Amino acid sequence: MKSEASTSAAPLKGLVGPLRSSEPALALPAVSPAVHLLEEAADLLVVHLDFHAALETCERAWQSLAEEPASGTVVEVKCSLCVVGIQALAEMDRWREALSWVLGYYHVPEKLPPKVLELCILLYSKMKDPEAVLGVAGAWLQDPDNQGLPEYGSLAKLHLFRLLLPLGRLSEAEELAVGSAAFSEEQRVEALQAIHTAQQQLTQEHLSSQEPQKLRQEGSFPRKLLSLLMLLRRLCGSAVSHLLSQPFRKGLLAALILCLLVLRFDPAPSSLPFLYQLTQLFRRIQKATLSRLYPLTLRD
């Protein structure tokens, strides 16, 4: 903000002429103390770079204006004091306090001077915080008393391009561009083109954000299936290794031998039909296996 400090005294030229630290302000009829304090604040800001003192001087000037009757000069002095105070706050990196500081004197957004509102919009949009001034600007634009001011069109354009579009409020921006008489036909076309471009960008960003999510969802099913197959493979491997283990084979062999002994010494094999049928099955399997291995020998 220091690069912009040289412009802080610009609003004062129409009031008391160019302000310089080496010469007094031009004499005005019945000059109020606030004008002298305004000149002092401008010198502190521009020449001495004493931003804290410049802000304090602006606040003293506002207190002195409380006793002044309303007039065109008082209105201009108040506006110039706000400009100097906002720039002093910005130079001290206290720009977030600028809007609340100004509203502390004007109380409602609709009463802000156009120059002060313009400076706030430019400041907060430059500092990437347009939402902080969005409500104030909207309230000012909706006030019927402000809609007849010559600065209304430029502030409406700033509101659209610096606040609504960066915040993605495209419907409000389109409503303002189409419904406001402050826009000329050329400005309206420019605003609608900017809104259309912003809509395309938002759509593209939305599609780009959805594509990785869709790929993740599509890839989740094959991964789940693969993990299930791996689990089944481990279970089958565990079962086979258990069946082929030495203790299990020994136990199975002992059970078969026991069955054979029971059938051999039991005089009535039909009393154990299951074991008898199992033995007959083993004999048929053995006979079929031998017939395949030694077909000629069995025939002979």
Outline of this structure?
The protein is mostly helical.
The CA-CA distance between the termini, in Å, is 115 Å
Uncertain stretches: 2-29
The overall average pLDDT, rounded, is 78
- Range of strand content: under 5%
Counted by DSSP, the helix tally is 13
Please count the beta strands (DSSP E, at least 2 residues each): 0
Radius of gyration: 46 Å
Tell me the major beta sheet: none
Helix coverage percent: over 70%
Structural class: mainly alpha
Secondary-structure element string: HHHHHHHHHHHHH
What would you call the shape?
Answer: elongated
What is the strand and helix layout of this fold?
Layout: H1 13-16, H2 33-46, H3 51-65, H4 72-91, H5 98-106, H6 114-126, H7 131-142, H8 152-164, H9 170-179, H10 185-243, H11 246-265, H12 273-293, H13 295-299
Helix pairs in contact: 2-3, 2-4, 3-4, 4-5, 4-6, 6-7, 6-8, 7-8, 8-9, 9-10
